[in-house]
Write a structure and sequence with these properties.
Order of helices and strands: HHEEEEEEEEEEEEH
Radius of gyration: 23 Å
Helix content: 10-25%
Number of strands: 12
Shape: globular
Strand content: 25-35%
Length: about 210
């Protein structure tokens, strides 16, 4: 009888250890998902469903191309050590005011104006509750203001190199568009997710524009 009780106790101890390990592992996996900025399935579905266009208009000209890589969480140092919460789309022509930026989604302009890091930026809240952040712009479309309703594919402004300083600062880095995508958490606070997979989904969905260059 004593042997059976000892064996049963050993079983309970082993079971508790397994449960504890599973709990720790689940927490580690949850933290890993947060660190990588992966959207959950519902968020992925919303973002994929409401994004319709790539955020830079196409020209049809090879010399006016652009490229991007997955730079999520890459080290950044301006303003203190931090990590990149977005994806940078680098233009082949390093000249501000050439490449048109368009809205990836329908939505409402929620933020507009200067940020020390982001320069001239536009923040758009989509019908699905996601926040799309377009930064380092050269200028805005004339009819854009806080509260404006925008449609997917609508012209927002031009790619630039503004930011990393006081209002009006340019030339601190190459011309590019910084795209950020944020999802609200259970407390309503926006949390950044990696935009790269969603850019890949819309890479071929380009609004075509006449760049007006000679």
């Amino acid at each position: 009888m004593r042997k059976k009780l000892k064996a049963y106790r050993f079983y309970l101890i082993a079971l508790a250890a397994v449960v504890l390990m599973d709990t720790v592992l689940a927490g580690q996996l949850k933290q890993r998902a947060a660190d990588t900025g992966s959207a959950n399935r519902r968020e992925q579905s919303v973002i994929s469903g409401e994004t319709r266009f790539f955020p830079i208009a196409g020209s049809g000209l090879e010399e006016l191309s652009f490229e991007y890589v997955d730079s999520w969480q890459a080290d950044r140092s301006f303003g203190g050590d931090r990590h990149h919460e977005g994806c940078d789309i680098i233009t082949s022509v390093n000249r501000r005011g050439v490449y048109p930026v368009v809205s990836m989604t329908d939505g409402t302009v929620e933020q507009l104006g200067w940020l020390k890091l982001g320069g001239w930026r536009i923040g758009i809240r989509s019908p699905g509750g996601m926040y799309y952040y377009y930064a380092h712009l050269e200028s805005y479309a004339e009819d854009i203001q806080v509260g404006s309703e925008v449609l997917a594919g609508q012209f927002l402004g031009f790619v630039g190199d503004s930011g990393y300083g006081e209002e009006g600062t340019t030339g601190q880095f190459v011309v590019h568009l910084h795209l950020g995508i944020y999802v609200p958490d259970e407390n309503g606070e926006d949390q950044a997710v990696d935009p790269y997979p969603f850019l890949e989904e819309r890479r071929e969905d380009l609004i075509q524009a006449d760049y007006g260059l000679p």
